[in-house]
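User: Hey, my collaborator sent me this sequence without any context and asked if I could get a structure. I don't really work with proteins. Can you help?
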Amino acid sequence: MIVAYRSDVGRIRTINEDTAWSELLADSGLALAIVADGMGGHKAGEVASGMAVDTFREALDGIPSTLTLEERKTLMSQAILQANEAVYEAASSNEQYHNMGTTVVAALIQDDTAVIGHIGDSRVYKWRDQVLTQLTDDHTLVNELVKSGQITLEEAATHPRRNVITRALGTDEQVEVDIICTGWRADDVLMLCSDGLTTMVSPSEIIGTLEQNELSLDQKADRLLQLALEAGGDDNITVILLHHAEDTKQEE
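Assistant: No problem. I've predicted the 3D structure and written it out in structure-token form, which is a compact way to encode the shape of the chain:
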């Protein structure tokens, strides 16, 4: 497996409130990745996303390779719920961090399956056989309006409340984690990203990048980041690409 990771503050923000991490565990054949997009007052979003990623990493430290799929799904949910507890406690006990929170998308890949954990509007996509599929369902007001037929997808893109998240990590004591399982086979690519990428870069542009076989995974991550910046870079931008390839390496 090959992993490429990019994060950028963008052209408007002064602080990068996105936090991401990935690790390949060659001995166990596991791969882990997480993207968190923080929100809150002065630097609070940065604190929330960093705390969520750190707690997630600690919760999955030393994960054995012998877990069943159901155990991996449970572990993913527990790790994200532990992160929710840590962020919520910090926000509740420190006025400076009041109401801080973060989105989260995480992947735990082993053998022929990827387990995805998700809260908020950061996304996971799968690229397989020249087809791009969004695996996660945005926890946003506009997505609820689209699903209920009140507005169209086109209207959602410019809706005045398009940034309103209906579910986040750390803002409430209890939160529901979406757990998704997807097949994982040779040449598949998973893309984890914050909305700073997907609000700036269209699905067709993502496809146009991923289908360029002459580019390395590293170059594809660079290209996606560049497209978001060229479109305005209105938000922090983070992307992790995981490629089911023969090689095993991590690119920074």
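In plain terms: The mean pLDDT is 93. You can pass these tokens on to your collaborator as they are.
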